[in-house]
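User: I'm preparing a small set of examples for a lab meeting where we compare how different chains pack in three dimensions. I only have the primary sequence for this one, and I'd like the structure in C-alpha cell form so I can line it up with the others. Please keep the answer compact; I'll paste it straight into my notes.
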Amino acid sequence: MVSAVLLSAAKLVPALAVYVAIGLGACSGDKPPVVTARAQAAPPTSPKRRVAPKPVAVRQATCVMTNDTLAGQPFGTEPTVAELLGAGAKVMSRKPFPNLHEKGQTDTILTLQHQGNQFEFYCMPEQRLLRRAVITNFRPAYGQRLRLTLDASTRQNGGSCAKVHIRDTERANNVSATFSEGKPAVARVEPYLD
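Assistant: Understood. Below is the C-alpha cell output for the 194-residue chain.
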C-alpha cells in the first residue's frame, strides 16, 4: 500500500512542478511561459459565435404616389348604379342633399351594398356619380380590376408597402388601400366631386 502512495506521489510531483513553472513564468515579464506537450495537444477554446438574426423585410408604413391614371380610374370601367343593382346590390340609404349650383334642386346621396362592398353615389336628375367606395371583397369584376390597379401601384414601390395612397396631380381623386400578406385587404376610392 505504501508503494502505491509513493508511486502516485512520484507522478504528482513533476506535474506540480510544471504548473508552478508555468505560473511563475507567466508572472515574470521577460521569459515566455513553458508549455507542456499535454497543453499543446489540447485544442484552443474559442468563444461561441453569435449568429446574427436574419434580416426581416421591413414594410414601409404608407407609400404615397401620384398617378393620374391609377387615381382617376382605379376600377378601369367604373361600376354604375344600374350594374350594381342588376348584380344584386341592396339600397342601404337615400339621403336628400341640396344642390350647391342649382337653386331649389335637391339631389340624393344613394348608398348601395354589394357583396360586402359599399358604394356611395351622388345622384342628380341627369347623372349619378360615384362619390365613395369601400371595397373589402375583391372577387367581383370591379374588385378584380381594382386589385390590378393596386398591384401595379405596389410594384412601382418595390412591393414593400403596408398601405398605399394614390392621388392624381391635382390631389382630387384618391385611392387608399391597406395590405395584408401582400394582398389588398381594404380599399377606399374617393373620386373628385364638386
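A couple of notes for your slides: Strands lie at 60-66, 90-98, 106-114, 117-123, 128-135, 161-167, 174-180, 183-190. The longest strand covers residues 90-98.

User: Perfect, thanks.
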